[in-house]
Structures are given as C-alpha cells and as structure tokens.
Amino acid sequence: MSDNGQLKLPKSIMPIIILVIVVIIFLSKSTITIDSGEVGVLYKTFGGGVVTDEAPLGEGFHIVAPWNKVFVYNVRQQELFEREMSVLSSNGLEIKLDASVLYQPTAATVGFLHQTRGSDYLNSVIIPAIRSATRSVVGRYTPEQLYSTKRDAIQAEIFEETKKIIEPQYIQLNSVLVRDVTLPPTIKTAIERKLKQEQESLEYEFRLVTASKEAEKVRIEAQGKADANRILSASLNDKILRDKGIEATIKLAESPNSKVIVIGSGKGGLPIILGNQ
Fold first, then answer.
1. pLDDT digits over 62-81, tens only?
2. What percent of the chain stands above pLDDT 70?
3. Which residue from 18, 76, 121, 197 has the highest number of Cβ atoms inside 10 Å of its Cβ?
4. Which fold has domain 78-183?
5. Is the pLDDT of residue 186 over 80?
C-alpha cells in the first residue's frame, strides 16, 4: 500500500491483467452464434474474401478470427406478397393482380448469393423477376380468361418463368400463388353478364335434351306396347279363344260362389255364367 493509503498492484501483475483484457476483447470479436433456420457466410479479410468452396457456417456457436466477418442469412421459406401489380392483357387493358411468392435461399450455395447479389437479393432479384414474369404471362391472355377459365394455367406459367430467372441466382422458388385479379369495373360487369347468359343457355339446352329424351322414352314404350298387342292379336284364333274360354269357365264353376250356368248359350258355344254375387 502506498503512503497516501491507495492500493498499489505489483508491477508483475499488470501484464497479466492486460493480457486477460486483450483475450476478452479477442473472444468477443471472434465468436458468433448462428440461430435456427440461418447459415453464416464467412468473409476472410486476408484469405480471398467470401468463402464459396466450403459449406456455410451452420446453426450454433462458432469461433472465427477477429479480422474476418460473418454474414448471416435466413434460409427458411419466406413469403413476398406483391399487391396490385399493374399489367396489360392481350388486348391492352390494364389489370391489377395480387400474388404471393414463396422462396428461400439455397443453403449450400448461399456464399455465391452473397458474392453476386448480397443480402438485398429480395429487391435486386425476386421482385423484378416476379413482376417481369407476370407481365409476360398476363400479356398472352384476354381479361375474360384471366377472370375465369385460365387462372390456374396463368399461375403455373408465372411460376415457371419466375423460376427460370431466380434459380440460377442461387434462390429456390417454392410456389407462386395468384390471389386476386382485379379488372376494370365495366369489363368485369360485361364478363359476368356474358358468363351468366352462357350459364342460362347451358341450362336451357339441358332442359331441351332432358325433355327430348323423356319424349323418346315415352314413344319407345308406346311403340313396344303397340307391337306387343299386334303380335298378340295376330297369334289369336277362334280355337285358342274357345280353349281360353273353357279354362275360364272351369275355374268359375269350381269357385264357391253361387252361380247359374247356361250351357251353349254364349258366343262360340261357350256357356253363360250368371251369379248372384
């Protein structure tokens, strides 16, 4: 302790304290923790810049040289929602289209993405790509096709064209979803009126076909009955009718009901049966 009462450290301890401070600073500058769903791109200041020939740093704790840098990228699936993109149909009408783009950086090649496009790849690659592909595809179709029959085909074509642009740039495209197509009010009203008329026409044609089939069915049944009667009439003769009459007479005579039978008084010599019940 010094004469003025202050504690004085031995000179031999000072280098140790300084070394400890330097080590703490070194470690604080040399460690990084990569969170879930992320990878780290290593940049070697004295070793050739961005490391692309090695796998990126994975999740967890890492120690790197303090003069190097690590750029962290989210490699989970992400969504871009493009609202009211203005595009032109095949006949030059302006269409508003909403679409969602599901994408993610390709983890194994994220070093090349950082080297060629950087962390702002959303604005420099994906947004221009989806807008360009949408304009190109929508320009092939009429407003009516966009509004009704071709929605799925348009969505698939936008996906394929966007994929051709962004996947060579180390970005994986998972899906493109066309959420809404907004037409000018007058065009939308005209299309809806036309679709309604087409639907009514189809319903009317269906009723005509149904009625025609029902009429044909009745005609066939009537023709069948007429043919059956004609065949039956042609096959009957006096002998068959007399035999049938005798059979009927025998059955009536055998019944328990009271009756009076007049023999030989009917047509063809058949008996007449008179009953009181």
1. 888 888 899 999 999 999 99
2. 65
3. 121
4. Tetrahydropterin Synthase; Chain A (3.30.479)
5. no
The ranges of the chain annotated as CATH 3.30.479.30 are: 78-183
The pLDDT confidence band at residue 204, using thresholds 50, 70 and 90, is low
Residue 256 has a pLDDT of 67
Is 140 in contact with 92 (CB distance < 8 Å)? no
* Intra-chain end-to-end CA distance of the chain, in Å: 148
